UniProtKB/TrEMBL annotation:
This is Putative transposase. Residues 49-76 form a coiled coil. It comes from Dyadobacter soli. The keyword Coiled coil applies. Gene3D superfamilies: Homeodomain-like. The keyword Coiled coil applies.
Length: 88
């Protein structure tokens, strides 16, 4: 069976249907997902709106860029330290 990929906004819409009173099995059957997937999504995205998702995505992207910058600077520092130690 082909794995379906849902975007975060689609996941939030699915969760809103579930939280709106629909049965978990009905929602799972309609979208072709398992109950475990639905509850994992609920744990991760519960109570979020589209604007909050955009902000979360932006923060995750910024965090990724900052980690990459730190790794590059750390490597540069280590190289510079090794060069200085060799000269002494």
């Amino acid at each position: 069976m082909k794995k379906k990929n849902y975007s975060e906004t689609q996941i939030v819409a699915i969760l809103k249907q579930y939280e709106g009173g629909r049965e978990a099995m009905d929602v799972c059957r309609e979208y072709g997902i398992s109950k475990a997937t639905l509850f994992n999504w609920r744990k991760k995205y519960s109570g979020m709106e589209a604007a909050q998702l955009k902000e979360l995505k932006a923060l995750q992207d910024e965090n990724r860029r900052l980690k990459q910058m730190y790794a590059e600077l750390s490597l540069d520092y280590k190289l510079a330290k090794d060069i200085i130690e060799k000269k002494l």
